[in-house]
Structures are given as C-alpha cells and as structure tokens.
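# nightly structure sweep
# worker-07 picked up a monomer target from the shared queue
# config: single-sequence mode, recycle default, output format = structure tokens
# input follows
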Amino acid sequence: MANKKVVITGGAGFIGSHTAIELCAAGYLPIVVDNFGNSDRRMVGRVHEITGVRFPVYELDCRDRAAMRRMFASEGECFGVIHFAAHKAVGASVPEALSYYDNNLGSLVALLEVMGEIGLANVVYSSSATVYGEAEELPVTENTPTQPAESPYGRTKQMGEWILRDTAASKLPLKAVLLRYFNPVGAHPSGRIGELPLGKPENLVPFITQTAIGLRDELTVFGSDYPTRDGTCTRDYVHVVDLARAHIAALAWLGKESRASFSEVFNVGTGAATSVLEAIHAFERASQTKLKYRLGPRRPGDVVESYANVDKARQVLGWSSELTIFEAMRDAWKWQVALKNDPL
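# output follows
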C-alpha cells in the first residue's frame, strides 16, 4: 500500500480534501486534480499542513482529455482514481441543468476514456442517495429500486452510475465502486478544513452554523407536518471523516478483488434517521448555543424520509460509521468559529 498513488478529482472540495487526509494516513499518495471552480485552493495548503505530506496538485478540468493525459503521464503508475469532481447543488441544478449534464457526465466520460487508454481500471465513484428518490422501503438497501430523480443533479448521478455499469460490461476493463453517500456533515476535528459553500448554503448544517455565527438571520425548517416522529423530514447524516474513510476501505477492497471488470454499489451512511429538529438540538448541545429558527411550510421536492441499510458496506468493505451526529455538529461548529477567527 505504501506510496501507491491515487488520483482525486475534485480533491480540493469538502469530501475530497478530507479524503486526501485519510489517504495520507493510510499510506497512499494523493494526486489532487481540481479546476477550483467550486473550491478554494487554500484548502489544499491546509491539508498539507494537517498531514505533513506534500502531494502534487494539478489545476485542470477533467473534461480536458489532453490535460488529463499529461497528468497521468507525469505521475506514472497509479493505483486508481477517486472521482469527486462534479457540480453538486440540487437547487442550482434546475436552472443550470445543461451545465450540470455537461460537467458531471462529461468529466466522467473523459476520465474513463483516458483511464482506458492507459490501462488503469480501479475507480471509486462519488454517487448519492438522491438516486433512490422517494424510496418505497426504509431503510434503503443497494437493491432498493431507484425512483425518478427530483433534480438534474440527481439524474446526473443516476446516469453516472449507468455509465460505469455499462463501461464495466463493455470491452474496457473497469473495476468500479459506486458509493452512494447519504448526508455528509461535520468537519475535520482540527478545525482547519470543512464545508465551504459558495453563497447561500444548500445544505442544512452549514446553514445552521452560519445562522449561529450571525451570517444568517434565522434558519427555516421546511415542513413540520410530515408523518415523522416530530413532523420534520429525516435524513441519514454521516460524518465527513467517516465518509472519507469509506473510500480508503473501497480502495483496499479493490486491491484484493480478483475480477477483471465489475461495478459494485455500496450505501455510505450511519443506518439511522435523524430529523431536522433533532439535528438542530444536537447542534445546540454541541455548541452550547441557542439557534434562531422557525417552522415554515414544506419545500417542494423534499423527500420525507431517507436513511441507509449499511450491511453491505460493513460485511464486504469492513467499513461502518463511528462518529455521531453530536460529534459532527461539534466539529462543524469548531470549523465555523475557526473560519470566523481566521478567514480564508
């Protein structure tokens, strides 16, 4: 394992930067590829600081096949690729649909073409629980039928999975692990890196922390009359450090898998549902801060309940989550406070 190179596309982003840290801890050498269109290059310096490892960074767009070929030629033999690079805002994907299809699917196709040219087969793909839509059964397993996606973003993840399946079944050898993330939250416990949304946050936890720190006036809870235990939507919130470690487990499994070509799907979550109000209360306990929020009307397109069955990841990859929603909120708040005191 020592010194095996792993290319991380979108490696300066929220999940990518945390995964770079875990790769270093596991003895891999991350090769970060990012166009910095939705990330901050200074996060890479902070990962260098945390790990003490000076790994290569390439500023390029994954859709640029020539640039990707030059990157692989420069780096030589690599163990595999973790593909994060994608636009990821569900709401923004509606008015920017064409951009989402071009970027999210175009980058994947270009990457797979270049990997095929150089004979590199191992890839871990950043998928999403959005592929399940409003699931007919809970908790969802990897065999739960997917429903029509609620957004262009969700459709790009569904289509991305099909691209990988079809490629693995074609003449091109491909060993693909598709990780369906549930709701990544938290930050690195050092407080040096974390989620850094551009503009108004799309996700619950950065909106919570920005409200608590005074950047937002208040948080609106969309819907309090759902058929759940407290009337608010439930989600499976997984700590980003746990999520990053799932990629290390996937790489280790790929290294032992003897099949020449396949695609395997794994849910990555905690296996437990947390309501929006429960998440808010966990934040208030972790931060010892009273949050200003109000109950508002339902938001169109929101899934009522979503949480994972994670038996397959535990049994096959040997991975399971270890960190709690309290720890995720504690670390997210530590990052938000640190960002206020030492802004990027």
